[in-house]
Specification:
By secondary structure, the protein is mainly alpha-helical. The chain is 75% helix and 1% strand. The chain contains 20 helices and two strands. It has a two-stranded parallel ribbon with strand order 1-2. Helix 1 runs antiparallel to helix 11, helix 4 crosses helix 11 and helix 15 packs parallel to helix 20. The two termini are 25 Å apart.
């Protein structure tokens, strides 16, 4: 997530709010589609393909360890982005970041397994996953903050919700692709080549969304929206410690739910039950659809009662969700559908809570920093910790996370 200065003001042009909304949703759906393509594969493909010489649970834990590398890379992308933008501009930085993301994703889709090249296979997977994180972090553009700033009075919660639709929609698209591949190919065909098509599709949708995103980088959003400005990191840490801490930890319920209702149920079903992956994916697509509606509801509700109250409500309801996690043994739809509904409620307001807590001159850098940290503390290790707890103490213990 790059927190760099804006240097494309020489080419400012006006855009309509409908154009901004459409493009922001397109960009975020694209980002999350690629994000969840890897997430699903890390549970259903990579343990067998890259770690076949380990017991299934250990192999999945290793796969989830590699999964976390992209989140660790995101803060590093911020530092790289600061230097890169000075040389090539904001638009150039976004192009490079998306090309890095797309190329590394396609490369993962081309990787041979452990049986073909030995330890080179998981080593290359780890390296490419880290590069994916650099690309995804560098592609963060601050447009969602401008959209929220340009929102009419009393509607900032709703407009801040709009980019969050990319999460459940992007997951549904990724899950649908795996559902088709897993359901209509034999197990051998799916493991040999079927899963790879999803990774190739990521590059295609990245190219489609790139052109629309570039046009918005120098756009006049209207209202009191200003192009994003970075601040020296030393100043951000010195003067904005409290907003960084609050903005990092307040939305953790949303970030942890991201992987506990998407990746974790897939891994648990494969390792501990006879429930088919296709059935889990079907329930998750249904849950993702519910999540789209609760994201909308979250934006509406946050304008009525305030964003902090919505996040607090979601966090309290998440405690109740923990008591349903044992349903994954026989009735996975209970935890999955309820989890996605709560994911939409909490995720819908998570991006809108941070900007107002920072002083204007530190807002862009502060939001970038706190969002990176939220992903690391809330989401990066969720499937790894959840599965490790399950292996040690039973399914109920995964709710402790």
């Amino acid at each position: 997530m790059a927190d760099t200065h804006y240097d494309d003001s020489h080419d400012v042009h006006e855009v309509t709010i409908d154009e901004v909304v459409t493009t922001v949703i397109m960009a975020r759906v694209t980002d999350f589609f690629g994000f969840f393509v890897y997430a699903i594969a890390s549970a259903v493909v990579f343990p067998t393909l890259f770690f076949p010489n380990y017991a299934p649970v250990t192999a999945t834990l290793l796969s989830f360890g590699v999964f976390s590398l992209a989140f660790i890379a995101r803060p590093i992308a911020s530092l790289i982005g600061r230097s890169l933008q000075k040389k090539v501009g904001r638009g150039g930085k976004i192009v490079i970041a998306l090309m890095v993301l797309g190329t590394s994703t396609v490369a993962i889709g081309l990787l041979p397994g452990y049986e073909s090249i030995g330890w080179w296979a998981p080593a290359l997977l780890a390296a490419l996953r880290f590069v994916q994180g650099l690309g995804l972090g560098g592609a963060w553009d601050g447009i969602t903050m401008q959209l929220q700033s340009a929102a009419p009075d009393g509607r900032r919660g709703f407009y801040g919700m709009i980019p969050q639709l990319g999460g459940p929609i992007g997951f549904c698209v990724a899950a649908a692709l795996f559902y088709v591949m897993h359901g209509f190919l034999t197990e051998e065909e799916f493991m040999n080549f079927g899963w790879r098509f999803a990774f190739f599709a990521v590059m295609a949708v990245n190219v489609v969304s790139l052109f629309a995103r570039i046009r918005l980088l120098s756009a006049d959003f209207g209202g009191d929206s200003l192009p994003p400005q970075s601040a020296p990191l030393s100043e951000v840490f010195s003067f904005q410690k409290k907003p960084i801490l609050i903005s990092t930890f307040m939305p953790l319920a949303a970030y942890s739910l991201f992987h506990m209702v998407t990746v974790f149920p897939l891994a648990y079903a494969m390792l501990y039950t006879d429930i088919s992956i296709s059935e889990i994916l079907l329930w998750q697509m249904t849950g993702g659809t519910i999540g789209v509606f609760t994201v909308f509801f979250s934006g509406w509700l946050s304008d009525k009662i305030g964003r902090p109250k919505v996040l607090m409500l979601g966090a309290l309801m998440t405690i109740g969700l923990c008591f349903t996690i044992t349903s994954l043994d026989s009735q996975p739809w209970v935890f999955i559908l309820a989890g996605f509904a709560l994911l939409g409620l909490t995720h819908g307001s998570s991006s809108a809570i941070a900007p107002a807590r920072f002083l204007p001159q530190y807002r862009y850098s502060g939001v970038a920093m706190s969002t990176n940290l939220s992903w690391i503390f809330g989401a990066a290790f969720a499937p790894l910790i959840g599965l490790a707890l399950t292996a040690a103490f039973g399914l109920w213990s995964a709710s402790l996370y």
